[in-house]
Design a protein that fits this description.
single chain, 518 residues, alpha/beta, Rossmann fold, UDP-N-acetylmuramoyl-L-alanine:D-glutamate ligase, 2 domains, 7-stranded parallel sheet, 44% helix, binds ligand NPW, binds potassium ion, NAD(P)HX epimerase activity, nucleotide-binding
């Protein structure tokens, strides 16, 4: 989905209103869809404290409150401004709410907010109407909210954007620290900045506009859009239709790395998965790996030629080693006339031998974390520079770059820059990159173009981790094997996400008809 700046979203809002969709309808769409999202995806608890600002962001929060009350949630409302100072739509939504739920508990500033009452706090204080840094009473309220979140263990859900965050924010600005940000309409560009990810948490985008903004060249990876790239499997097919992945990696002490990549490659649906390892660890890897996987010592020339000649894709790097022998073998692999996926030690070897970019025959997907990226570039860069770095690195190279991070970027020359929306801090553990390598390679083996494989792979990897964390009830202790085991659930999520969005579009028409009749 296109990512826009605040001016772009304001322009879209004006156009939508001018073409006959009143602002109130837009607010109803935003609030109802956000509530449906909260109902479905935050269902572990059913109590919420809605902190309401005086503008339209507050109005959205009041619609969400109404919808959740209808579903039987326990909701408390806290008004941050006097009722007389509420904006017209916000005031209207409050009056409607009070009429429908006369017993609703409403707290008002300067009474202290009832922080300990609910499992979720809705930040509906300020949205894109925010200008400059937070000051005065609101600044104090936001500090209190963040402090209570840490102490009371509620999760914070930001509507449209965390209050206090705007285009000029820095990583140390004052803003609400959200666990989930539900962006309205389109993702705003500043929400995706790596250095602000601490504030935004997980980002979900709710489409509310019929019209599209002008193309920005910067897009978010969203499940429902990627679903269109995944055809259902034909019954009339066999393993040969789903490709052969060959993974090269492993060394003494690093016998698990290629196994984790292979597990993910199998779970994404590859037809056949091979692991080529040094002879010295062959027997260890052969006993560790899934029985479905074929392991061979890559020094065996006859086996090497037989496997590689049949390969749909060659993935390399996990636990590969950096010695002279590994470097020599890496050079051989770089010359193969196959799509390549390059990670970990092989990125370090590529950084040492930059002339090998010229050897890439078909195409290569590179998946560096920021440290490996710095090695490839031979220079330091900051989180703020990631997007520019990614765009300039791919120029004149036959590569797709996956620059890992909280907001992993996918870049390729001539394409939009994509930023990922899935994933969680549970992925910050050894072996996560190996799973990602396996997923991307598995998708290429199944016929995905490398750019699509990178985009889908990054999103599926993150979403599998989100589902695994949800099942485990915690982000701590997530393992790459949990991620691989939830790949199929991520595929299912992606397909049902498409259905959800299509359903919502028909739901819009209902809302429109309701207001036209009034
Ligand atoms: N885009 C769309 O199509 C749709 C948008 N929608 C929703 O509307 C939201 C935007 O609503 P909005 O324009 O009413 O602004 P909003 O964020 O509520 O804040 C306004 C208040 O902020 C205050 N304020 C400003 N800076 C401040 C500061 N530094 N420190 C303290 N206060 C500050 C400012 O005060 P003032 O400057 O007036 O004194 C004013 O009171 C958007 O995010 C989305 O949620 C949906 O309804 C559906 C369609
Ligand atoms: K907000």
């Amino acid at each position: 989905m296109n990512i826009v700046d605040v001016q772009g979203i304001r322009k879209l809002e004006e156009e939508e209103i001018a073409s006959g969709t009143p602002a109130e309808v837009l607010m109803e769409r935003a609030g109802r869809m956000a509530a449906a999202f909260v109902e479905e995806y935050c269902s572990r608890h059913r109590s919420l404290l809605a902190i309401i600002g005086r503008g339209n962001n507050g109005g959205d929060g009041l619609v969400i409150t109404r919808e959740l009350l209808k579903k039987g949630w326990v909701v408390y409302v806290y008004l941050t401004a006097e009722r007389a100072k509420l904006g017209p739509l916000c005031k209207k939504k409050l009056d409607e709410l009070v009429q429908n739920f006369p017993d609703l508990a409403i707290f008002e500033y300067p009474t202290p907010a009832p922080w300990t009452k609910a499992d979720y706090v809705l930040d509906s204080i300020l949205g894109i109407g925010m200008k400059g840094e937070l000051q005065g009473e609101l600044a104090n309220l936001v500090m209190e909210l963040n402090e209570k979140r840490n102490r009371c263990f509620f999760e914070t859900i930001a509507v449209d954007c965390p209050t206090g965050l705007w285009e000029g924010s820095k990583h140390n600005s004052l803003a609400v620290v959200a666990d989930l940000t539900i962006a309205i309409g389109y993702g705003k560009d500043f929400l995706f900045r790596e250095e602000l990810s601490h504030f935004t948490g997980r980002i979900e985008i709710i489409p509310i506009f019929e019209k599209s903004p002008s193309y920005s060249g910067f897009e978010s990876l969203t499940g429902w859009e990627l679903a269109c790239l995944f055809p259902f499997r034909s019954y009339y097919s066999h393993k040969g239709n789903y490709g052969r992945v060959v993974i090269f990696g492993g060394s003494i002490g690093y016998t698990g790395a290629p196994v984790m990549a292979a597990q993910a490659a199998l779970r994404i649906g590859s037809g056949l998965v091979y692991i080529g390892v040094p002879q010295e660890i062959y027997s260890i890897v052969a006993t560790k790996v899934f029985p479905e996987c074929l392991v061979f010592p890559f020094e065996d020339k006859r086996l090497f030629d037989a496997v590689v000649s049949q390969a749909s894709v060659v993935a390399m790097g996990p636990g590969f080693g950096l010695e002279k022998k590994s470097e020599f073998f890496f050079r051989t692999l770089m010359q193969l006339d196959k799509p390549l996926v390059i990670d970990a030690d092989c990125l370090t070897l590529l950084a040492r031998n930059p002339e090998l970019y010229e050897e890439i025959k078909k195409w290569a997907v590179l998946t560096p974390h920021p440290g490996e990226m710095k090695r490839l570039l031979r220079k330091e860069f900051s989180a703020e520079e990631r997007m520019e770095i990614a765009k300039s690195f791919v120029k004149d190279k036959k590569i797709t770059l996956v620059l890992k991070g909280v907001r992993t970027l996918v870049a390729q020359e001539g394409k939009a820059l994509f930023v990922n929306t899935s994933g969680n801090p549970g992925l910050s553990t050894g072996g996560s990159g190996d799973s990602l390598l396996g997923i991307i390679a598995g998708l290429i083996a199944q016929g995905f173009d490398p750019f699509d494989a990178a985009r889908c792979g990054v999103w599926i990897h993150g979403k599998s981790a989100d589902i695994a964390a949800e099942k485990r009830k915690t982000k701590e202790g997530l393992l790459p094997m949990d991620v691989a085991e939830n790949i199929s659930a991520a595929l299912l999520w992606m397909r049902s996400d498409l259905r959800r969005v299509l359903d919502q579009k028909s739901y819009w028409n209902e809302i429109q008809a309701y207001y036209a009749a009034k």
